[in-house]
Amino acid sequence: xxxxxxxxxxxxxxxxxxxxxxxxxxxxxxxxxxxxxxxxxxxxxxxxxxxxxxxxxxxxxxxxxxxxxxxxxxxxxxxxxxxxxxxxxxxxxxxxxxxxxxxxxxxxxxxxxxxxxxxxxxxxxxxxxxxxxxxxxxxxxxxxxxxxxxxxxxxxxxxxxxxxxxxx
Length: 168
Prior knowledge:
Blueprint: H1 4-7, E1 9-15, H2 19-27, H3 29-32, E2 42-48, E3 55-61, E4 67-78, E5 82-90, E6 96-97, E7 108-118, E8 121-131, H4 135-143, H5 145-164
Antiparallel strand pairs: 1-8, 2-3, 3-4, 4-5, 5-6, 5-7, 7-8
């Protein structure tokens, strides 16, 4: 059985912004397109239906022209403190596909984002783990936690920069 506490990816970041603003930039297309995704990639939002059962379908393109598509399917949403979503790679039509970089990567990653405010700053905690995955896919996820940590550090750096110039 996959143990989230021991094997899941847990990221924590404190940002200098109120929780309502941080929730807003995680839940609106006009904001997400400015910071979500790998460092240096341009982001286009195909669809954002921010509601339980809704989808966020997006395209990421590197400066060299490498294109990846992604998909969130939202679960529980408690404004402004929690967003649960399943993240997958997808094709242009929004169908789940294998990761372009790893043959045995899990198709679906369950994510729980929580936001806690203290003195005008917000602590973001993102917990992710594979669901509906084979043992081999779970092993690949676990083996690549350091790489994912580095990737999310770049994404969260972009979030910090975006929050510094954004207000409610």
